[in-house]
Amino acid sequence: MTIATTFPRNPTASPTPVDVRAERMVDPGFGRVFTDHMAIAHYNAADGWHDLAIAPRQPLTVDPACAVLHYAQEIFEGLKAYRTADGGTALFRPEANARRFMASARRLAMPELPEELFVESCRALVRSEIDWIPDCDGGALYLRPFMIASEAFLGVKPSSDYIYMVLASSVGAYFKGGPKAVTIWASENYTRAAPGGTGAAKCGGNYAASLAAQAEAITKGCDQVVFLDAVERRYIEELGGMNVFFVFDDGSIATPPLSDTILAGITRDSLIALARDRGIAVREERYSLDQWRADAASGRLTEAFACGTAAVVTPIGAVKATSGDFTIGSGGPGQTSTALRAALVALQTGSAPDPHGWLDKL
Ligand SMILES: *Cc1c(COP(=O)(O)O)cnc(C)c1O
C-alpha cells in the first residue's frame, strides 16, 4: 500500500466572483461563509487513506443507511489560519489539533489520520483558499476538519469506511467591538460528560447532548451553559464548547484539571503557558459552584472567562443557577482576561514573538 501524502488541487469550474467574495467577507460572522474548495480523503481497511484532494466544495451524496446518520460515529476539529503582521499566513498549532483528532478517533473506534496528513490537508486548503481570509478585525480562516463513518449498514459496529474532509470558513471577530461579558447558566439538571464516556473526545454526539441544556440556558436569559461534573454535580467542568478559567484577587488563575470528562482545549493549554510566561501562578484544580458563588461574593474571585478557538477569550460577567445567581467582579470584562486575550491574539497574528514555536507559517 503506497500512502499518498499530498492533496492535489482539482479547482472548481465555477469560482465565486471576486466582488461577491469581497461582499461576503465584509461582515462574515461565524460559520456561515464557506469557501469554494474543501480537502477530502477516503479510508477503508484495504486501501488505507486514499483519493486525497483539494476538491470543489459541494453537497455529499451518501446512502441513507450511512452509519454516521444513525449512530453518530463522527469526530471534528476547529483551528484558524491568520494573516500575520509580516504579510504572511500562519496556522496556529495544527499539530496539536492533529494529535487530538487521533485521540478522538481512538475513542470513537475510527481509524487514526496520520498527523502529517492532517496538517498537510489544512496547509493545502489554506493555500488554496488564501484569498478568503477577511481583513476585518479578528478576521481569520476557520478550518473544520471532520471524519464521518460512511458504510451503509444498520448493524451496530465500527464502520468499515470513512470520509475525512476539511471545510474552510471566512470568519470575523466573534463579538464585534471587542468581547462583551456573557451570562452563563450553570446546569444542575443536565450533564455533558460522564467518567468513561466521550467527554474528552471532540465528537458531534457531545454537542447533540448539550443542546437541551443550551436551549434551557437561553430560556433563562443566559448566553451559554456551564456544566457540572456528572458524579457529584458540584464541580465546574466546562461550557458546551469552551474551557473555563477563574481569576483571583492574589493575581493567580485556576482552571479545572483535565480528565476524561473535559476536552483538552488548545486555547486552554496556550493560555496556561502564556500566563506562566508572565509570572502568573496557574493552578489546575477542581472548583465547585458553591465555592465560585462564595468567592464572587467575598471578592476573592475577581474574574472568570471561557476560552476556545472560535471566540478566543470570553469574559463571564454573571452566573445563573437554580441554587442562586451571582455577579463576577464588575460584571464586565476584567483586566486579566483582557490582557491574556490580547497576548494570545498578538502571538497568533505574528505581532508578538512566538517563543513556543506555535505558528505554522505557510
Ligand atoms: C473544541 C472544544 C473546546 C475548545 O478547544 P480549543 O482547542 O481551545 O478550540 C472546549 N470544550 C469543548 C467541549 C470543545 O469541543
TrEMBL record:
Q: Specify whether Transferase is a keyword of the entry.
A: yes
- GO molecular function terms listed in the Swiss-Prot or TrEMBL record: L-isoleucine-2-oxoglutarate transaminase activity; L-leucine-2-oxoglutarate transaminase activity; L-valine-2-oxoglutarate transaminase activity
In short, the EC number is 2.6.1.42
Q: In which pathway does it act?
A: Amino-acid biosynthesis; L-valine biosynthesis; L-valine from pyruvate: step 4/4; Amino-acid biosynthesis; L-leucine biosynthesis; L-leucine from 3-methyl-2-oxobutanoate: step 4/4; Amino-acid biosynthesis; L-isoleucine biosynthesis; L-isoleucine from 2-oxobutanoate: step 4/4
Sites bearing N6-(pyridoxal phosphate)lysine, chain numbering = 202
Can you state which reaction this protein catalyses? Answer: L-isoleucine + 2-oxoglutarate = (S)-3-methyl-2-oxopentanoate + L-glutamate; L-leucine + 2-oxoglutarate = 4-methyl-2-oxopentanoate + L-glutamate; L-valine + 2-oxoglutarate = 3-methyl-2-oxobutanoate + L-glutamate
Q: Source organism's superkingdom?
A: Bacteria
Purpose of the protein:
Acts on leucine, isoleucine and valine.
This protein is called what?
Branched-chain-amino-acid aminotransferase
What broad taxonomic lineage does this protein's source fall under? Answer: Bacteria, Pseudomonadati, Pseudomonadota, Alphaproteobacteria, Sphingomonadales
